[in-house]
Design brief:
Layout lengths: L1 H9 L1 H19 L6 H12 L9 H23 L10 H12 L2 H21 L6 H81 L4 H31 L10 H14 L4 E6 L7 H21 L5 E8 L3 E9 L15 H12 L3 E7 L3 E9 L2
Parallel strand pairs: 1-2
Antiparallel strand pairs: 2-3, 3-5, 4-5
């Protein structure tokens, strides 16, 4: 029985058809007692049929039942002389309930006024005792209204919950898409920092070796050794980065940051021909992996830009300072031969964009500015958790 009731709840149209069918059977059983059975049954059938579409068309079906109830009162008065009643008149209670649940209180009030007219017609034409009959009907109509109000509140609550769940699902999907996009950006940023830095150094050294191979073979040999060591360093760094991206392990074996990482980066640039002065103040090695790696990448990208764009004779200074809750990174250079550098005016270079994205992710700030003599300065402040 419980399963059947649950099935009916999921099939509202079938439930309404069953209710209408029950009253059609009751009308058919009462019709033989009428003076005109066919007319009696036809009026009763007309009252039952709107039940089938009461959920889809609550206003139309409810007022159709009310209209046919008025007609049934006239039919009983004129033909059957008040000797019999229509069982389908009970559907007026269902119609009122349907209006309040599926439509609005305004239509419910109008329908109640129609019920007052219906009750008055029954009292005048069928001889119902008043006010006893009116109070009797009013009691059942009031019960129908109160039950409908309670269920309407419940339905609205369920709809609100469903709407919130839908919004939550949309928000969850949006967060998942944002997470995927952020992860792609992180991977692209890590690979750019590793590959672009090392490849830039290798290109500069290879070009220098090609010029010096005939006139200064010892310098060409040194440049090629730098290319080889840079390539090995890039391969090692790439493996570390891929290990980080695959496992999210932030261990010292995976990440190369802190004093040692900054010293290696500076030495690599010196080997590539860029004089670098490194100054570290404070306990940089105790900084967490995310900020520590961020500091290294900023230094790495900035020095690579100096090597690529500052020209011959350029010098760079790296200052890393850590206080209680912030790490400050400043990379400045004295320009060499006055070459124009991409991004000096508006910071539009991809490297600078990548640094800004990294600093933004870490919750810090990044400033870039031009120094006298075609110099360039990058300053970042990164909060330490």
């Amino acid at each position: 029985m419980h399963r059947f009731s649950m099935w009916l709840r999921d099939q509202p149209r079938i439930a309404d058809i069953l209710i209408a069918s029950v009253f059609v059977i009751l009308e058919a059983a009462s019709a033989p007692r009428s003076n005109t059975p066919w007319l009696f049954f036809a009026v009763g059938l007309a009252m039952c049929l709107p039940m089938v579409c009461r959920r889809e068309l609550p206003v139309l079906s409810s007022f159709a039942i009310l209209l046919f109830s008025w007609l049934s009162t006239l039919q009983l008065h004129l033909v059957d002389h008040d000797q019999i009643g229509h069982p389908a008149s009970l559907l007026l209670i269902v119609a009122l309930y349907t209006l309040v649940v599926n439509s609005s209180r305004g239509w419910g009030v109008v329908f109640v006024l129609g019920l007052v007219v219906d009750t008055a017609l029954k009292g005048m034409l069928l001889g119902y005792e008043m006010p006893a009959t009116a109070l009797y009907l009013a009691f059942f109509y009031a019960i129908a209204w109160l039950v409908a109000e309670a269920l309407a509140v419940r339905h609205r609550h369920h709809e609100e919950i469903a709407a919130r769940l839908e919004v939550a699902e949309i928000e969850r999907d949006r967060r998942a898409e944002d997470a995927v996009a952020a992860e792609r950006t992180r991977i692209a940023r890590e690979l750019h920092d590793v590959v672009a830095h090392s490849v830039s150094v290798m290109i500069v050294q290879a070009e220098g070796a090609s010029y010096a191979v005939r006139t200064h073979p010892e310098l060409a040999e040194q440049a090629l050794r730098t290319v080889a060591s840079t390539g090995r360093e890039a391969l090692t760094e790439l493996r570390r980065t891929l290990s980080l991206l695959r496992t999210d392990n932030s261990t010292d074996e995976v990440l190369d940051y802190g004093t040692a990482g900054l010293a290696r980066t500076s030495q690599l640039m010196r080997d590539a021909g860029l004089p670098v002065e490194l100054e570290i103040t404070g306990d940089v090695d105790s900084i967490g992996p995310a900020v520590g790696l961020g500091i290294k990448r900023i230094v790495q990208e900035s020095l690579t830009n100096v090597l690529r764009h500052a020209g011959d004779g350029a010098r760079a200074t790296v200052v890393v300072r850590r206080d209680a809750d912030t790490a400050y990174v400043t990379i400045s250079d004295q320009g060499g031969n006055g070459m124009t550098r991409p991004g000096h005016d508006h910071g539009s270079g991809n490297g600078i964009v990548g640094m800004r994205e990294r600093v933004a992710v870490l919750g810090g700030t990044l400033e870039t500015s031009v120094l006298p003599g075609d110099g360039w300065r990058v300053h970042a402040a990164l909060p330490i958790d």
